[in-house]
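User: Hey, my collaborator sent me this sequence without any context and asked if I could get a structure. I don't really work with proteins. Can you help?
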Amino acid sequence: MLEREGYLRALLESYGGVAFTSGESRSNRLRRKDGLVMVERISRMKLKICLVGERAVGKTSLLSRYVFNTFDVVYKGTLGSKMSLLSFKQIVAGNELVEAQVALFDLMGERAIRDSFRDVVFWGAHGFLAVADVTRSHTLQCLPEWVDCVHSVAGEIPFGILINKIDQAPSGNVDPKDAKWLQSTFPDVPYYLTSAKTNEGVEAAFDSLIEGIVASVLAKSMTRRETKLISERLLDFARRRGNCGVTKNDLLKAFKVTDISSLMKEVEDLNRLGLIILEPTGPASFVIRLTDKGEKELESIERTERIVEEPV
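Assistant: No problem. I've predicted the 3D structure and written it out in structure-token form, which is a compact way to encode the shape of the chain:
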């Protein structure tokens, strides 16, 4: 769970029908026994998360509860869309500090508004929460349409389902028929019973989605770093071999801990970019030689200070 650090003063302004609010900062710190934070790397990212669903399901109230820990008993419908800004810090595996700015978009539950502005609101989103009202079954039945709408713009991004106003459910739970329909319609999607009024399940739902998105972004970043490292090593290896070049056997010995398919793909990419020349020497063998363009690329890498991670 993302630990609360304290509230920032709310900043509200209106521009182009979109309201902006500045929220609190959350952090989950990892400390040593002496109380000091152990950080080896800092990663900064900006995330976009949307809340969707029918009118009056409690999207705005959920945002207010999560970002400001407040709840207003007076219903105020959202006009257009509303964006809340949230910042948090979190220590992840390997003592990596993640500093994220999260933009939380609350879209009006009118379908005409959704269809008119979905490209603007959903484009570039990293994830979303689909909200239904436990006291109105039809709001649950409408979720597939909202989910399809977001995915049509943002792609297959992760999402969770919030069954809100659980404090008003007679049994304190979802109707069995609705629960069965939900599990069959969204079998692999996590869903949460929430109450913006009592704060039940709210933090768990938002935190789970955000932490999952952060983990996904970091995994993709790690893959890019590893790919970049392989390409740099390949270019440097080819430069050291000069005119003799690097044979396939040489390559497999030097990169024996690297996945072969990933290695061969990187060789093909470097050849396609003109950084190396790939000369076949037999049915399944080749020699790699560095090109002038590849030499310039290596020199550029050596001159540039890499700021992919910021050491502490």
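In plain terms: Residues 49 and 176 are 30 Å apart (CA to CA). You can pass these tokens on to your collaborator as they are.
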